[in-house]
Design brief:
kinase (chains A, B); 2 domains; Phosphoribosyl-aminoimidazole Synthetase, Chain A, domain 2; seven-stranded mixed sheet; alpha+beta; ATP-binding (chains A, B); homodimer; PurM-like_C_dom (chains A, B); 60s Ribosomal Protein L30, Chain: A; metal-binding (chains A, B); 343 residues; 11 helices; 13 strands
């Protein structure tokens, strides 16, 4: 067990960092410091439970992420999971296994990142632990959320002849990562990516408001967050729901900055958009008759919304309709992206 | 991301392992396989949230634990945290970061251990993830629980002139660990420990029934589980509640097997009992007027209950009253045990 001094140091990173109001708003009766946290569940709501782990060199490289970014992103990835069920994030538990070579300053930065994200999304941090690891940082985060009873949106509710949408641009995180990776053997060094791509990789912005609207109004028939890439998430919906998804290349939201950066790197941005992952926008389906209402509401709220395709009956699969009207649709592979090798 | 084959392998360890009844009893609407689990909170109950991490070589050694034991114990440690609040364990999320050298058989055994413990305590496993680590196994477990609203028992409720109790013997796990450690440099090899000590180390039995009775009846004024050792947990109650705890050496529950084994090893069993830890029994306080009712009820339920001391007013501290009536009480150090060095 840690020494009394180590306990005091750990407490300085983790305890007393959130206001009584923040904790009360999240229904916290007992927070950090006892065997378990005690919280009051919200009346008329279901409880959501998500857990995501980030391992150094597997999920992130120190070369592309500041310590504070690692904390921020580990929590944000869980926020995105709650958003993908249509929920409001509430309580976080944070487990950090840290190499003994890390000094207190690095730990403080890591926890600053957790708390910055927690404050951003109104999350109460109520528990977890800090342990030593032999070599690599491992961060596991559990996040609870609430959704009105029976309104949680799974992956399996899509039907044929619905629209397929995303709640923001894709591929930015992969483009940013590409440009920040250390050069491989004999590799070219690409130009440093524009700030927007760097931020997309380091500090993703989960679609919490979009998810809550889609669930509360009963508009989304299926919903996934784009963590493993648009292709992979589309496949999950296709397989869980038993439908075919057809995406249209010319409707995929390609940001101008991504297009310009890909061109400077002589890369195809479509690869990043389909297989890049870590975009943390939402991919979902909705009935056609609700498309206009959704678009009107999202516009009023200032939230992006892109219809990128439609569902069809047939065996589970995902296809891309080319911009060229003469070409046939082509199947999209069920794969993610090898994050840490340059193409 | 894992390949489709790897996904299928992971699912074989984690999915479809619990009956629909088990999941329904725990209020699970959506379990493993979506972005987050969906569960219905229990009416009239507060929600408990605990998270504990076990790191290879820091919290356990492969020499003393089978793979299935690691899974069992990682979940049991969390069950004990829920018990220490007076709660009923409900939903587990399990994060495993596993060295790539582990084959599928070892992973299957690890998950067998998780599910054996889950089934033992009626817990629904609803999420988590499986990732690769570079060298060491890291297991992080989150467990939810339910306790009747307002009945959760913290560490801070003890007052002067109350009884101090434990819900089972202490020191067995430390004795078992001692006997299974690989010999140090030039070290003696102790006799292999008796089966009961080995089991106490590998498959601890958290005091869930005891905790629920103590909370439901409002009997416990404070409660901790003995994870870091009796001394350390007593200190936590003393400091959180602002009282002095006096333990009586002759009332500490010393099992005959532990006494005999300590004698064979020429060790002092008191060291294991006070500083050993990982006993996962409960240490708590209660008003004197309830002592008889508690003892009668525990006897009727077949549950152990030992009054080991009392609280006094005064600055926070923990003392041991010796068996020898002529000797003064001596202060108990606020420390745990260095698990992996032989004394």
């Amino acid at each position: 067990m840690p020494s009394p001094d180590e306990f005091a140091l750990i407490r300085s990173w983790t305890a007393g960092r959130q206001s009584a109001e923040r904790l009360a708003l999240a229904g916290v009766k007992t927070g950090i410091g006892d065997d378990a946290a005690v919280v009051s569940p919200e009346q008329g709501h279901d409880l959501l439970l998500a857990m995501d782990t980030m391992v150094e060199e597997i999920h992130f490289l120190p070369e592309t992420m500041e310590d504070a970014d690692i904390g921020y992103k580990a929590l944000a990835a869980n926020v995105s999971d709650i958003a993908a069920m249509g929920g409001k994030p509430l309580h976080a538990l944070i487990s950090v296994s840290v190499p003994s070579a890390w000094g207190p300053e690095r730990m403080a930065s890591l926890y600053d990142g957790f708390y910055e994200c927690a404050d951003q999304y109104g999350i109460a941090v109520v528990g977890g632990d800090t342990t030593v690891s032999r070599r690599h940082l491992v961060v596991a985060v559990t996040l609870t959320g609430a959704v009105p009873s029976g309104r949680a949106v799974t992956r399996s509710g899509a039907s044929p002849d619905e629209i397929v949408f995303v709640t923001g641009p894709v591929g930015l995180s992969a483009g940013g990562l590409y440009g920040m990776l250390p050069p491989g053997e004999g590799g070219r060094v690409p130009p440093f990516p524009p700030e927007r791509l760097v931020r997309a990789h380091r500090k993703p912005v989960p679609s919490v408001s979009a998810g809550r609207i889609l669930a509360d109004e009963g508009w989304a028939t299926s919903l996934n967050d784009v963590s493993d890439g648009l292709a992979s998430e589309a496949w999950e919906i296709a397989e869980s729901s038993g439908v075919t998804l057809v995406l249209h290349e010319n409707r995929l939201p390609l940001s101008g900055e991504l297009a310009a950066y890909a061109s400077a790197c002589r890369m195809d941005p479509l690869e990043w958009m389909l297989y890049g992952g870590e975009d943390y926008v939402l991919l979902g389906t909705a009935e056609r008759r609700n498309a206009e209402a959704i678009q009107t509401r999202f516009r009023a709220e200032g939230l992006p919304f892109f219809v990128i395709g439609e569902t069809e009956s047939g065996s589970p699969g995902v296809y891309l309709d080319s911009q060229d009207p003469g070409r046939a649709r082509k199947p999209i592979a069920k794969r993610g992206y090898n994050h840490f090798t340059k193409g």
